[in-house]
Amino acid sequence: MNVFVTGAAGFLGSHLVDRLLADGDRVVGIDNYVTGSRANLAHIRGSQPFTFIQADVSQPWTWAASSENPDLIMHFASPASPVDYGREPLATLAVNALGIMHAVALADKTKARVLFASTSETYGDPLEHPQRESYWGNVNPVGVRACYDEAKRYGEAYLTSAVRKLGIDGRIVRIFNTYGPRMQPGDGRVIPNFCLSALQGRPLTVYGDGRQTRSFCYVDDLIDGIVRLARGPGLQGKLVNIGNPIEFTIEELARIVAEVADVPLHMVPHDLPPDDPTRRKPDITLARTLLGWEPNVGLREGLVSTLDYFRELTPVA
Ligand SMILES: NC(=O)c1ccc[n+]([C@@H]2O[C@H](COP(=O)([O-])OP(=O)(O)OC[C@H]3O[C@@H](n4cnc5c(N)ncnc54)[C@H](O)[C@@H]3O)[C@@H](O)[C@H]2O)c1
Fold first, then answer.
1. Pocket of ligand 1, candidates 76, 177, 239: which has the most ligand atoms within 8 Å of its Cβ, to mutate?
2. Does the C-beta of 82 come closer than 6 Å to ligand 1?
3. What pLDDT was estimated at residue 277?
4. What's the CA-to-centroid distance between 260 and ligand 1, angstroms?
5. Given a cut of 60, is residue 169 above it in pLDDT?
6. Ligand 1: which of 33, 35, 37 to mutate, judged by most atoms within 8 Å of the beta carbon?
7. Catalytic residue among 33, 123, 135, 148
8. Which residues of 288-314 are buried (b: 16+ CB within 10 A; e: fewer)?
9. What is the reported pTM?
10. Which residue of 41, 61, 68, 155 is surrounded by the most CB atoms within 10 Å?
11. Same domain, 46 and 170
12. In sequence order, which ranges of the chain are alpha helices (DSSP H)?
């Protein structure tokens, strides 16, 4: 298959490219480096059936004319952490709205399949727990996270409408918190924060009372679920949660990071950011039944390689 991956230089995009190349696909990666990094793709440049195009995918996809038609377009480009989309709210809205529109237009011409990377943030601060795909969510449309949450909801609505109106083979993955090597150190998400603090001998900053829960999926598990959704036959129009349903409080996570990093645990409290969801946990029944997928990597195991990555990246105490 010839696969276009937008956001290829990002955390998830680069792991996705690795997996597609390992499966024998030809891959065109597109990225403007707004949050991604050249280092994430340095290991594959020039040595495999991989082409990189530096472009903003919110702009018309003129570069596509000089590439072989895609069989599959995976739209992953978007700032993804509160720090990143807080800094680039308009670009975040654009890349999810205009980016999916360009992907659909190309798919309509070439008959390519489209997979859109959506998010558990479409559930907002959920009133249903765990979250099933049928839940419509509880999102503040004018809050500080709206540029991301509503952009993803628009992307979902656009692709779903294109499935109905144009017969596009569109599929949507709602990704829950994922972690692993190549996460950006400064993106403000809890796992990089805790790993870096632990490695640098600083206290771990815990927002709120630390009793809010999150579930954390290791990146290899997530990518496997996404690839199953992208490749599976008869999945046109499907929307599937992919994430790890095992819930941890933020305080528990702090303890586990300190234990795996083998450092004493010191925590400092901090005010909760606005619109921070109190609970998040995927119902993965659909992923299990439709894709035969479930996560395999436990939190402690995943943290070992994540901490190794951050250890190599940063000077430690
Ligand atoms: N990491 C998670 O836990 C998580 C959770 C839910 C959803 N997602 C979704 O998965 C996707 C990837 O997330 P990530 O964690 O890898 O984030 P990331 O910031 O590491 O990667 C996003 C990539 O998209 C690129 N990009 C952004 N806007 C662009 C544009 N206009 N044109 C070209 N490239 C652009 C960035 O430079 C970056 O390389 C995003 O769509 C995100 O919303 C991620």
1. 76
2. no
3. 72
4. 27
5. yes
6. 35
7. 148
8. eeebebebebebeebbeebbebbeebe
9. 0.96
10. 155
11. yes
12. 11-22, 82-87, 89-110, 146-166, 190-199, 219-231, 250-261, 285-291, 299-313
- CATH code, 189: 3.90.25.10
Q: Is the CB of 155 under 6 A from ligand 1?
A: no
In this structure, the answer to whether residues 22 and 149 fall within a common structural domain is yes
| Residue 74, strand partner residues | 5, 115
User: 315: pLDDT confidence band, cut at 50, 70 and 90?
Assistant: low
Residue 129 is encoded by which pair of tokens? Answer: 């727990």
Over pLDDT 90: what percentage of the chain? 86
Name the residue range of residue 252's domain. Answer: 180-215+246-281+297-313
CA of 4 to the centre of ligand 1 (A): 14
Q: Is 131 in the pocket of ligand 1 (CB under 6 A)?
A: no
The yes-or-no answer on residue 85 being catalytic is: no
Using only C-alpha atoms, the chain has a radius of gyration, in whole angstroms, of 19
Q: Round to whole Å and give the CA distance between 294 and 244.
A: 8
Q: Which amino acid is residue 39, in one-letter code?
A: A
Q: How far apart are CA 154 and CA 150, in angstroms?
A: 6
Backbone dihedral angles phi then psi of residue 176, each to the nearest 5 degrees:
-95, 165
**In a shared domain, residues 14 and 137:** yes
